[in-house]
Specification:
Blueprint: H1 3-49, H2 53-56, H3 60-90
């Protein structure tokens, strides 16, 4: 094998490794998003039970959860876009 072939193989392996790491990061972010939605759902359920829905929008923990959900959704979209770009490069 010549050096060019080895470099191509090395570059391809590096691309696959980067893609795998991005997939792991994406799965972690999706897990975080699920946990945030679950926490928000628990707060919503408690508010419904206590007839406190109007007070919920002023609850700092709810505002923080909603902000965290939006941030996590953006990270997920960025990672998905990164993966889509990686798939094109791997071909």
């Amino acid at each position: 094998m010549n050096e060019t072939t080895l470099n191509k193989l090395k570059n391809k392996a590096m691309g696959f490794a980067a893609s795998a790491l991005t997939r792991v990061e994406l799965a972690n972010e999706e897990g975080r998003l699920k946990a945030k939605f679950q926490s928000l759902g628990q707060k919503l359920y408690a508010a419904v039970q206590g007839d406190l829905l109007n007070a919920m929008k002023d609850d700092p923990s709810v505002v923080e959860l909603v902000g965290g959900i939006e941030e996590t959704k953006k990270k997920i979209a960025d990672l998905e876009q990164k993966l889509a770009g990686t798939k094109v490069e791997e071909k």
